[in-house]
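Wed. Picked up where I left off yesterday with Very-short-patch-repair endonuclease. The coffee machine is broken again, so keeping this brief.
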Amino acid sequence: MLFKKHGFGRVKHKSNQTQVNHKPLKIYFHNFSYSIDVKMKPIHNRNYLEDKRKALRKDLTSAEATLWNHLKQKQLEGRKFRRQHSILNYIVDFYCPKEKLIIELDGGYHLRFEQQLKDYERDEVLNNLGFTIFRIENKFIFEDLDYVLNGIKACFK
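Structure written out below (tokens, as returned):
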């Protein structure tokens, strides 16, 4: 993978691989832009995360299971959703490929300040790759599921 850091820094890493004849993907984060040649390494469902994804699918939280019952089999306006899908090194709760929509359910763990910082950085990276992220607290799944489903529909293009 070709990887350069632009902006206020110097080149972080440059592989010895020959550059291909297409424009690299640029990601902007804080005051730096990153150029990534994504054709050299797929960003979806990397093999080393497969066991982790399977384990997460088997051990859904009650909020994830409830929402999944309304998303699976194209029940929500004919859109196909995947659960526990990986993008880069991240595993997202639900993903709709047609809409490039990521749905993240946040429990109490995500209310911690340190986790909120990690979530923010992750969201920035995924947003810069062109994904839309819909984040909702678990409690809304149980308190007002229609509100959640309407929020997801509002993200459709």
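Quick read: The chain has five helices and seven strands.
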